[in-house]
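Work Package 3 (structural annotation) set out to generate three-dimensional models for the target panel prioritized at the project kickoff. During this period the team completed the workflow that converts sequence records into discrete structure tokens, so that structures can be stored uniformly alongside our sequence database. As a representative example, we reproduce one entry of 160 residues exactly as it appears in the project archive.
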Amino acid sequence: MSEEQAYLFTILRDAINLVYQEERFLLRFADGDREGLEQAFVFRAGIHLSDLLNGTEYATLDLDSEYNKNYGDAKTSRRFLKGLRPDLIIHRRDSNEENKLVAEFKGWWNNDIDTDIRKLEDLTDPDDNYHYLIGMFIQIGRTEAKYRCFINGGEVPNLA
């Protein structure tokens, strides 16, 4: 893992940890009647990530959630010909030259992760359209997240 990839992983992990530290933690509400708000978790992580990126070289890039555009067309890949919509990305809109980070999130209550893994493989593949520098799969846990990292179209084992 390069220094830049390690930095992107670290800053995303820091943003996610800040979500877990929030006073009104959003994975539990209504006296436990319901758990699991993946989209709200991604949104909160994005807010913290935006704050952490301020003052860095990444502040001039775009941070988007559910962004499905490739220039004016749908974002597609070799296995997602009808389109795909990553949960969170750091990139420059209307360009594929500065695709830095792509992240997919799933909560502990949802074991259907195969599509997310394939997306990360495609989006980080240097032979596909986007070649994101690093892809992260985040499993939202009850008290902490678990991470899987994707570089050059494949998973990097033993990520701490």
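The first helix runs from residue 3 to 21.
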